[in-house]
Amino acid sequence: MSEPAAPEQPPPGLDMSEFKLKIDHFDQVHVLGPENIIDGAPNFRQVSGFPIFGCAQPTENGFSDVLEKVPKGTEEKPVKTIWYNMREEPVIYCNGEPFAPRHPDRMHENMSIMEPVDEMNKLEQSFSEIIKARVNADEGKKLKIDKDAEFTENPMDRENIEETIEVNTVQSLYEVFTGLKQKGLKNLELIRVPVVEESAPREACFDILVDSLKQEPAGTQCVFSCQAGRGRTTLGMIIACQVKEILICTELRKMAEIGLVPQATAEDLIKQKFEFPLPRGQDDDDPFIKGEFDVIKELLEKLPSAKDGKAKIDRLIDLCGPGPKGTGLQNLRECIIETKWKYDVAPEDRQVAWRQIILNFMERYFYLICFATYAKEFGPAGFEKSFVSWMDEHSELRKMIENGKDKLEWYRQVDPA
Question: What is the pTM of this model?
Fold first, then answer.
């Protein structure tokens, strides 16, 4: 896939003329500590053993600084980098800082746009033109923007603040990316994978990632970003790790089959790279930390091959999650029960938001296991079947997660006092 073509007209029926502009970054958005810190690209990290990186939505300068950290190869043998924008909502840059549109009545929710990727890119360009017109309409080139007073996990606890800034430049993400390529970063590709914040991805999103990687050499570098570099970025990193691992293992085993390397050597290399033991945590034996929820157990029972899929994706979730096992921000399995604990101690009026987040996290984890099961079956032959087609053949799984994701003990477990 190549970078999106210059957008033209926005999707019909979506008027964004009254949408507000909210800045992406907030105080303490960077939570990973001082190691590898990059100004303008909070939460930058790499998955151990993989050419896969992640960060929050970078500033215009942050893009260049991240790409300086990513291996580029040599002039004779350049290495390609694919930058994955994991956001469904448009991204606009004012004075080199990233912003996103918010509905005036839903300032703490990112947009959900059920449109093809090309339409989303058009919408992004259209909204940047709206913002340019607002700036040009003001004599002092001033623009009202919004931000959160402070970050809180529960969106119901967030307080919105309105400010006015002087604006010198307005660009869409496409325009920022085009500028990077004009500065000489030729071996670079931008791909949008439209995922709503803290939600399960659409099935087609898995195929966007697979299709972009299945023909790429193992050394192709992958960078993932979303607003804070948290859930959506981690999701993309996990899927990319799964695809790259399968491609590398398949290639090594083919080399063994034709006698280029001994079979025992190939299997030893696979074991060393992809099966080395991870540090154990004190809660590792907790059934919920292990992801043993009712709907997950039902999946493993009805689809026995999902047991191996779960084991593989659990390891990658750990590698892409927080230390000591990984280098990231969020463990996409453990966050389900961790959010349930927050739900248990929250006042009733705040439980609504927590509950929805828990259901979204459960669905996301379920789909990751399904993807790993599909990838184990069809990855070694080159992913000839799409994940959407595989899910069509296993359509009962869609009903299973829809009906089973809320099978939790919802009554209060802990007295908030």
Answer: 0.92
